[in-house]
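User: Hand in any protein.

Assistant:
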Amino acid sequence: MTSSGIGIVGTGISGLTLALRLQQLGVEVTLYAEKTADEMRAGRLPNTVARMRRAQEREEILGSVHGRLEGSLVGGARLHIGGAPPLEFRGTLADPFHAADFRVLLPALYEDYTARGGRVVVTPEPPGAREVDAWSAGHELMVVAAGRRSVAELFPRDGRRSPYDRPQRSLLAGLYAGMTTGDFFSYNVSPGGGEVFSLPMVAHGGLVTGILVEAIPGGPIEPVTKLSYRDDPGLFLHLLEKTLAEHAPRLAERIEPGAFDLVGPDDVLQGGVTPVVRRPFATLPSGRVALAIGDAWVTNDPITGQGANLGSHCAWVTADAIARGGPYDEGFARSLATEMWKVAGPVTDWTNAFLGAPGDHVLRLFAAAALDPFVADHFVNLFGDPVRAWALLGDPEAVDALLASRAEVLSEEGSPATGEV
């Protein structure tokens, strides 16, 4: 059944996936964008994200596959958890990750949509609730997938699902040259300091190394996240190299002396993210409904790497619900939000839990992974299935049952496991 007249605010992964999927399903769409595709390409680094297999499969179904350069698929993960002694292990991903600079990926999706006849309205200013309400007169439903003003004005914070009122990490994301890229995800935990993540990323000039530093406020990693590269590139790089050597030593080993640098001065992002879940829909003054998806609804810290994947999932679920037909009223929005929360809930709970100190059961899992390749593989593959991830990591009994079953298998085999780093 074909519907019509859907307005989408935002050209992030959620808005563009929704627009392309509705277009594919024969639904009329108008996309409201703050920037053109060329302006998106020319902007500052917006994030460093990986898309897991399910997000990649959606792009394949849409016929919008971009940036699959040789060596760009991430086939494994190496973990380092600091301590005396540190824990280290490596796992193989059954379904490789793919990471692309969103200044490469999103403009390509945008142009796929317009090349297929999609309508775009470029807004001169960030829209607010008044603009969304005015636009709603021409649509059966407004979907807000981005927009600073419209999000704050339309969708209030849900205190039941939002335990934090400020950022829990000071963030530094950047794209770097002068490092061996490898084909794996580097995951480093410094107790009391924070986390450092790295993976190969497709950028404008080809493959580069993306690094995300997640520093606990007041901890030993935080200073590097506050330095300005533009003010003093030498000092910035010196402190970053020193921080990596102390808190992510396996990553620091990949630096090529004298060659390590940001790809460019716009290839860095600093700040913090306040994790928040907002009300998933609003009734506009006109009486029509505005639905929130993606970051407009759920904004999580990037510590578990789920933001783009959740945005893609929610867009897909939303598109299929819209294509089944209206009315697109509060009942529709409430039912859809319940369906989306089946994945968004575990992602949010998992992410919020990892912003705190790991529970004893998680430490037991890490310790077992350092000795047993099966457990190592099991853990790293959780990133591609957040529902299964939280079912395990959120339940000490489930972790203990897994470890007990592995101990029984190893006992029957009669030989100790050995992990590989």
User: Anything to note?
Assistant: Residues 169-273 form a domain with the D-Amino Acid Oxidase; Chain A, domain 2 fold (CATH 3.30.9.40). DSSP finds 15 helices and 17 strands in the chain.
